């Protein structure tokens, strides 16, 4: 603030009056409100982290709505299809953060009996990435798998064999 005040002084301008930030908006659905309360009260996450996770989950919900799918029928393939374009657009750490937020959300959905299976603990036979991608495309996407268990799929083993 001191530096900004000095800039206004040098430019011979009056700084604008101080305005408080508007209060954060409430989540748009009852489910997201419940999830936000869970993150803040049970998990003890700070408000900024809760807002970030809600933003990630909101993007997934928008994607599912565009695909005409519901949360009760969500699969790992749906999450993969959502994450692959994210991996091509964002840095590895950002994509990993989004994947982590979604993994936490699916665990919450399973624990609160809103989905029938725990997607965060996928069966070994389920592949995390099912798209037809070349090694170059995967390297360009800078995709980071969320857990070690996810890395042990037939597709990943085949791709990694080419790098050894």
Q: How would the blueprint of this fold be written?
A:
Elements: H1 2-10, H2 30-42, H3 47-66, H4 76-89, H5 92-111, H6 135-141, H7 154-161
Helix pairs in contact: 2-3, 3-5, 4-5
What does this entry look like structurally?
This protein is mainly α. It has a single domain, classed as DNA polymerase, domain 1 (Orthogonal Bundle). The chain has helices at 2-10, 30-42, 47-66, 76-89, 92-111, 135-141, 154-161. The chain is extended and about 65 Å long.
Which features characterize this protein?
55% helix, 0% strand, DNA polymerase, domain 1, 164 residues, mainly alpha
Give a brief description.
Helix content is 55%, strand content 0%. It is mostly helical.
Shape descriptor: extended
Overall pLDDT confidence = 78
H/E topology pattern: HHHHHHH
Largest sheet: none
Number of domains: 1
Helix % is: 55-70%
Classification by helices and strands? mainly alpha
Q: Roughly how many Å apart are the termini?
A: 53 Å
CATH class: Mainly Alpha
- And the CATH topology? DNA polymerase, domain 1
Name the poorly predicted regions: 123-132, 140-146
How many strands appear in the DSSP assignment? 0
- Our Rg estimate from Cα atoms comes to 21 Å
